[in-house]
């Protein structure tokens, strides 16, 4: 019996549950939200690691100067507002009243300066901001000032970045820690407090409502913008690694929310009227086929292009989310579908007729001489694993001299750091996936960069992409940004730093009596029990 | 006896040293990179390199091993690369669930398996004997996680008697503690019940052929006294041996059981640490397990003397 079959059986076990057995109806229990997060929380520092689970932890306990709404528009969050002087070269941000850290100290401008400075050392968007910043200083307790080399309209979008290490504000004493050293405390000013005394990594993470938190007074909750109104006194993350056990637990009411049930579990949970399945983010994640540009065969542009006719985005996406077309997008370019930057430039190469024979012919034209290539991928993480399996079949059918290396994630992420040729343990190709936020625009979109040795794993050197990216940061308006986005996609579709292999929705399972969830991420304000 | 115990305890030191060397070396050469895991999917290669350097993972083998041994010698198991928590704290957090699971499993296995084996031997060739042997085959053949899922289906979801997952500390009451352990203990114990029952039966069959058993019968002793006082005591040494081996094996079995029933024990801590290459935690837990194995073996050796007066140290 395959493990997946067994999981299905295990989940079917849960399907038989008719009544909640352990959801004891007590008022106190109604104020507790129990959820199974996507992964175990191992690190508490959202700058030190870019792990999504630590990002989600960050959104619980920290706040940001600006939030982003669902349309990716920055809105003041910790900031009361800002003034722009000297033609946009001097930006003064004023903190709103009532901000207080969980240790009781007030949030001051110097805390924001230290936090933003640390963040700018690690985050790609932050690094761009740092390159344009002459100085960042606290004018007084309430105001901080950016002195910019030139106007940077995306400043507030950068400060409101939602994913990949947002610019969370923490006390100066913590934020002054080196950006490559992990912070040991979790003290923020956000809507929840972290219960360090109940933290048991791998088992339980507990947050309590921050009674001192003052939500912004205007707007509506939208992604990380608007008032963060908390309706639970306590949120418990129960780390349950076994999908069938988690499925059974949500059906019995032992837990309220299962963040990332695998597809076969989703199908079974749909049959339970006490559980609802919905997209955690209305925007999809994007899967990519990443090439190693340093070595043969994919240091040859024509060899990369030869892959295009063989790529069927539907095949890759169905391997992840099943056959329901509502759950995936098979015409995905280099930007997240549904975002302003998404476009159809040069997309015919991926949406036209698919042909392995055509791909084989292009391989020969490209001069393929049976060089060995290595596809590396994990077996223990759903999306990359599924895409790797499809990709392995594809490269074999295309006639590559392929070495398929499937390992656990820990080994895959080590092997992909190797810049060696295949003969010395290197790699040629890998598959992975990125969140909608990561590919929403060029700022955080590092697989789309072409800065050679400084680029993300695969190290493509595509100067034109870098030029366009730099120009995008200077774009005066959305129309100009979109035009540059099209140009970037055209260049990318020709140079192929990677190939998009489709986009898919991440579905989540909640008890039916929960409502008000803010879409986008696993966020814990807004959500309430009816 | 005291001198023997002291000698055996002292003998654990070179054993632990060899284990330490082996574990450290194995992890050093094993693939995987905690810095890459920490950095996350969005990190650049430079980020990974800097994190590796900040964690000291770029230091030479001997330097790292020396530092680790020095810490161990001072009773410091180190700090988790990921959580920044002391390994000893993480083990402390996880030891109660695993210990509880092992105790309940062991009690269950012994109280069920030994009488089963004795009765099977006593009623050799009857339906009872065949039923016990059939159960034993089943216990060996069905994987622990399958038993776990089936138990959860019947007793948690269908009958609604017990919880599906989790662990409640003993400090919150005996019943809350026990109700989370019943299903995992049955799942984990099934293979040990089968093992102990088979060994008990086989050993008892041999003992029941001995002259002194015939003498006991001739003296008019009752069946219960013959079986449980005379025969079982003389059959105890192999049974204790197998219980000891089983106890050591429970640690491995707990890994699966803890995952299926979401029990936050040492088994899951070990698996999680291995998957993310949290070297200090892996090393600490393996050292602990090794120490437990050594102590269990010592306890078994000492237990022999209680049942067989001919054995003296």
UniProtKB/TrEMBL annotation, chain A:
Q: Note one Pfam family from the annotation.
A: SBP_bac_5
Key word Glycoprotein present: no
Please give the superkingdom of this protein's source: Bacteria
Checking InterPro entries in the record gives:
Peptide/Ni-bd, SBP_5, SBP_5_dom
What sections of the protein cross the membrane?
none
Keywords, A to Z?
Answer: Signal
Broad class of where this protein is predominantly found: periplasm
Give compartment(s): Periplasm
Q: Ranges for the Solute-binding protein family domain? A: 74-437
- Family affiliation: Belongs to the bacterial solute-binding protein 5 family.
Name of the molecule in the record: ABC transporter substrate-binding protein
* Species of origin: Falsiroseomonas oleicola
Top-level taxonomy: Bacteria, Pseudomonadati, Pseudomonadota, Alphaproteobacteria, Acetobacterales
UniProtKB/TrEMBL annotation, chain B:
Which coarse location class applies to the principal site listed for this UniProt protein? Answer: membrane
Pfam families for the chain? BPD_transp_1, BPD_transp_1_N
**Superkingdom assignment:** Bacteria
Q: Where in the cell is it found?
A: Cell membrane
Which segments cross the bilayer? Answer: 9-30, 99-122, 134-157, 177-197, 235-261, 281-307
Task: List each copy of the ABC transmembrane type-1 domain by range.
Answer: 95-304
The alphabetized UniProt keywords are: Cell membrane, Membrane, Transmembrane, Transmembrane helix, Transport
Q: Does the keyword Transmembrane helix apply?
A: yes
State the membrane topology. Answer: Multi-pass membrane protein
Q: Does the keyword Membrane apply?
A: yes
Regarding protein family, the annotation reads:
Belongs to the binding-protein-dependent transport system permease family.
**What is the protein name for this chain?**
ABC transporter permease
> What is this organism's lineage?
Bacteria, Pseudomonadati, Pseudomonadota, Alphaproteobacteria, Acetobacterales
